[in-house]
């Protein structure tokens, strides 16, 4: 089992920045088995959508809507995934979720952190 805990959400004005964190915990073997990690978001009344995804090879892919504004990074030494969000827009308002995939075991989710961008 992998436990994921997100933090860093909050209320920010349009044009502002936030940095989300996701700390992964579990056995060393489990943590080292994570194949890739991602950030998703879900706005009210909408489906959950992929924001950014990383794989063990080091490449990162972003949703078109956040390219150039969001940056995902991973601190393997501290088992932490980050999402730096700049130039935030009201349409970025959503609950942001961290996700970890271990291909052999399944997909794991955090509880989510609310991001609200006021206009």
How does this structure look, described?
With 119 residues, this protein is mostly beta strands. The protein contains one helix and eleven strands; from the N terminus they run βββαββββββββ. The strands form two sheets. Strands 2, 4, 5, 6, 9, 10 and 11 form a seven-stranded mixed beta sheet that branches. The protein has a four-stranded antiparallel beta sheet with strand order 1-3-8-7, with no helix packed on it. The mean pLDDT is 94.
The averaged pLDDT comes out at 94
Report low-confidence residues grouped into runs of 5 or more.
none
User: Looking at the structure, what is the overall shape?
Assistant: elongated
Helix content: under 10%
Structural class: mainly beta
- Tell me the number of helical segments per DSSP (H or I, 4 or more residues long): 1
Radius of gyration, in Å, reads: 14 Å
Taken as a percent bin, the fraction of beta residues is: over 45%
Oligomer: single chain
Distance between the termini: 40 Å
Question: Would you report the number of β strands?
Answer: 11
The ordered string of helix (H) and strand (E) elements is: EEEHEEEEEEEE
Largest sheet: number of strands, sense, barrel closure: 7 strands, mixed
Highlighted features:
single chain; 119 residues; mainly beta; seven-stranded mixed beta sheet; four-stranded antiparallel beta sheet; 11 strands; 4% helix
Briefly characterize the structure.
The protein has 119 residues and is mainly β. It is built from one helix and eleven strands; from the N terminus they run βββαββββββββ.
């Amino acid at each position: 089992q992998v436990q994921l805990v997100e933090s860093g959400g909050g209320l920010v004005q349009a044009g502002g920045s936030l940095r989300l964190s996701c700390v992964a915990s579990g056995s060393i073997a489990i943590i080292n088995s994570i194949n890739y990690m991602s950030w998703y978001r879900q706005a009210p009344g909408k489906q959950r959508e992929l924001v950014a995804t990383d794989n063990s090879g080091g490449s990162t892919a972003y949703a078109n809507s956040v390219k150039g504004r969001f940056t995902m990074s991973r601190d393997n030494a501290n088992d932490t995934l980050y999402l730096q969000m700049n130039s935030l827009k009201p349409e970025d308002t959503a609950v942001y979720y961290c996700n970890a995939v271990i291909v052999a075991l399944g997909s794991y989710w955090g509880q989510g952190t609310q991001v609200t961008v006021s206009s």
